[in-house]
Specification:
CATH class of chain A: Mainly Alpha
CATH topology of the largest domain in chain B: Rossmann fold
Organism (chain A): Nocardioides aromaticivorans
Number of helices of chain A: 14
Subcellular location (chain A): Cell membrane
Number of domains of chain B: 2
Protein name (chain A): ABC transporter permease
Largest interface: A-B, 34 and 40 residues
Mean pLDDT of chain A: 89
Low-confidence stretches of chain A: none
Low-confidence stretches of chain B: 26-39
CATH architecture of chain A: Orthogonal Bundle
Radius of gyration of chain B: 25 Å
Strand content of chain B: 15-25%
Strand content of chain A: under 5%
Structural class of chain A: mainly alpha
Order of helices and strands of chain B: HHEHEHEHEEHEHEHEHEHEHHEEH
Helix content of chain A: over 70%
Shape of chain B: elongated
Pfam families (chain A): BPD_transp_2
CATH architecture of the largest domain in chain B: 3-Layer(aba) Sandwich
CATH class of the largest domain in chain B: Alpha Beta
Strand order of the largest sheet of chain A: 1-4
Largest sheet of chain B: 6 strands, parallel
Number of domains of chain A: 1
Keywords (chain A): Cell membrane, Membrane, Transmembrane, Transmembrane helix
Distance between the termini of chain B: 66 Å
Oligomer: heterodimer
Shape of chain A: globular
Order of helices and strands of chain A: HHHHHHEHEEHHHHEHHH
Distance between the termini of chain A: 34 Å
Structural class of chain B: alpha/beta
Radius of gyration of chain A: 22 Å
Number of strands of chain B: 12
Chain lengths: ~325, ~350
């Protein structure tokens, strides 16, 4: 008997039942989880995480890693904040400047990792520290008093949805399309599975990850600019502090293999939602700080366990090939 | 092809032997005699050509403000100000202080992340004839201190908020605290703020006590609390950064910026928060640090010790002031950020 399609999907994305159970539990215990305001709040808070988690996931799938996104986020916020406060910059100008700053960080990471073949872990750990220093050097004091045009970036709504959520949805859709329906997407997976085999197949094994570094840097800086616009202020020392850990957690909990070669953006989006819902629910419950840390740690381990079991469950629920029909023996 | 085992062993022994010899030589050449140390003792402020400023929380906006004034004062008196980079880590702080002591920097001003943990460094500095000034508190082994009571800052804010609650809410309403339980100064501020408020306004309902020191976390925590308690009246923050995030969450939820039944307050005296106070919004108060006074003290206190003043005479106690709309001090502190 074949397993129903819905069961197979659940086996492929085990975070779906986990998120459903969490939502039911938080609603039952607080009575205010499944409210429009709260759900929009979670979506808005998670939007910047999704915007950065998506390109990071693509980078990890290709076998690379970027730990500098937290500091790039801060640099993007500082760059946009500077233009918005000191020069009354337009939203477009602020966004472009942030993207430029992010691309610059991505280019350094890409050149060192893809061009020179240095370890992405060590290189991006170095840029994580260096870029934070640059951001703090550029703006040691808090930035406030942004232009109204810039405030629109994080404060406007389109069809009832906050603009950060709209931007996150666009990022997910475009990246999803690239990853699933284009040769570039297949190349990203191929490089992650086997660099040598991809090279021999004619895939540009340096340029593709280099481009992904640029994209990750640009979107991390954009996320910083969005958050600066939402808050109406930038503190270069605390902006995006520890953000890289949240991004990496969302990516890995979403089922992307750190070794590269496998993972899906649906899983990453579920990972982002899982983290957002967990954080929000624990706050709603009023769980003390240190117990929140314990709960988050345990939940992450459980999610990681499910991500580990997912391929096995998928294999178990996959439709079995029909037995070959006996070849009639000629009389 | 693999190397012969004896060759790699010989190389290993060579390396370790060389490293050991280097360590021994360094130990033998390290100045350890008390007479040598005494040569470095500052006999007057003229002997202090360099001051080491060790501030571990470089990510806080206050750091930039204090450093700005300390640098200006150092330039004024012709002293070189050298700074550490501890990245908010006690182990890095200890290591950096050991370096300053080994370099015989004549005066060290240090803000201990864990006060008890730095008694050893303070004692080592003093026995080497260096001046040790404790920032933000006191140690047993010190030449002098620069103090400003973190608990007092919290208390000032808590009391003002409680008075406001009684006058504007009849003492009945909902409050959320954004706190810090992770470091000593945070715990002191939290205790001062919460104890003072709950004692003076016991009928107020505490609907949240969440960890938050930055605007982003403050925003998301208060957003979540508002989902359950849309009638939240008050937010008090351990830092102005966190309280600023709380303010944004309330505005985002549709609260008018000058709502008469809402109170947000923080600590530090960050520029963004002070501007909101000045504008007349419901961000009503900040327990502000006097950046210029603290920055000047970072230079003046060790120089006073070098000129022979005692701990009691040289030490500076910089008051934390609660600033509200209309206070002359509000404009003064805002101008310090310029």
């Amino acid at each position: 008997m074949s397993t129903p399609q819905s069961v197979r999907q659940l086996a492929r994305y085990p975070l779906i039942p986990v998120i459903i159970v969490m939502a039911i539990a938080f609603e039952a215990s607080t009575g205010s989880f499944v409210g429009q305001q709260n759900l929009l709040g979670i979506a808005t808070d998670s939007a910047t995480l999704a915007i950065v988690a998506v390109p990071t996931a693509m980078l990890v799938i290709s076998g690379y890693l970027d730990l500098s996104v937290g500091s790039t986020y801060a640099l993007g916020a500082v760059a946009a904040g500077w233009l918005a406060s000191e020069h009354n910059g337009s939203m477009l100008g602020c966004v472009l400047l942030a993207l430029l700053a992010g691309v610059a960080v991505g280019a350094v990471n890409g050149l060192l990792c893809c061009g020179l073949g240095l370890s992405p872990f060590i290189v991006t750990l170095g840029t994580l520290t260096a870029v934070r220093g640059i951001a703090q050097q550029l703006a040691p004091l808090p930035q406030t008093g942004f232009s109204e045009s810039f405030a629109w970036l994080g404060g406007s709504k389109v069809a009832g949805l906050p603009s950060p959520v709209i931007i996150a949805i666009l990022v997910v859709l475009v990246a999803g399309f690239v990853l699933v329906a284009t040769p570039l997407g297949r190349h990203i997976y191929a490089i992650g599975v086997s660099r040598e085999a991809a090279y021999l197949s004619g895939v540009r094994v340096r340029m593709v990850p280099f481009g992904l570094f640029l994209l990750t840097g640009a979107l991390a800086a954009l996320a910083g600019a969005i958050k600066a616009s939402v808050l109406g202020a930038v503190q270069s020392g605390t902006a995006g502090l520890g953000f890289e850990l949240a991004v990496l957690t969302a990516v890995l909990v979403g089922g992307v293999a750190l070794a590269g070669g496998s993972g899906s953006l649906v899983g990453v989006v579920l990972g982002v939602a899982f983290l957002g819902i967990l954080q929000n629910g624990l706050t709603l419950l009023g769980v003390p700080t240190f117990w929140q840390q314990v709960a988050q740690g345990v939940a992450l381990i459980v999610a990681a366990g499910l991500a580990y079991l997912s391929p096995r469950l998928e294999a178990m629920t996959a439709p079995r090939p029909e037995a070959p029909k006996p070849v009639p023996v000629p009389a | 092809m693999s190397q012969p085992a004896d060759l790699s062993r010989r190389r290993f022994l060579g390396w370790t032997g060389g490293a050991g010899a280097a360590v021994l030589l360094a130990a033998c050449s390290a100045p350890s005699s008390s007479s040598d140390a005494k040569d470095k003792v500052a006999k007057s402020s003229k002997d202090v050509d360099k001051i080491g400023f060790d501030y571990p929380f470089t990510f806080l906006p206050v750091y930039a403000g204090v450093t700005k004034f300390a640098k200006a004062r150092a330039k004024e008196v012709g002293v070189d100000l050298t700074q550490t980079s501890d990245n908010g880590r006690p182990d890095v702080q200890t290591s950096n202080l050991d370096t300053l002591i080994a370099q015989k920097v004549p005066a060290i001003v240090s803000f201990p992340m864990v006060f008890e943990a730095l008694e050893t460094q303070a004692a080592a500095a003093r026995s080497a004839g260096l001046i040790w000034v404790t920032y933000g508190g006191t140690l047993k082994n010190q030449s002098a201190s620069i103090t400003f009571s973190f608990e007092e800052g919290g208390r000032l804010l808590g009391e003002d908020a409680a008075t406001w609650a009684k006058e504007n809410l009849g003492g009945k309403g909902k409050i959320a605290f954004l706190v810090d339980d992770t470091i000593q100064l945070g715990r002191e501020r939290t205790k001062g703020m919460m104890d003072a408020f709950t004692k003076a306004a016991p009928d107020m309902e505490v609907v949240g006590r969440e960890q938050a020191i930055d605007p982003d976390t403050g925003l998301s925590k208060i957003k979540a609390i508002l989902a359950k308690h849309p009638d939240l009246n008050m937010v008090l923050g351990i830092t102005d950064g966190a309280a600023f995030g709380g303010y944004k969450a309330l505005v985002e939820a549709g609260r008018a910026e000058s709502d008469a039944k809402t109170y947000v307050g923080g600590q530090d005296g960050d520029l963004g928060s002070l501007e909101l106070i000045k504008k007349g919004t419901f961000y009503r108060a900040s327990a502000a640090l006097q950046l210029r006074d603290i920055g000047n003290a970072v230079i003046d206190v060790p120089l006073a010790v070098a000129d022979g003043k005692s701990d009691a005479d040289a030490s500076a106690d910089v008051p934390i002031a609660l600033v509200k709309q209309g206070d002359s001090l509000l404009d003064e502190i805002i101008s310090q950020y310029a």
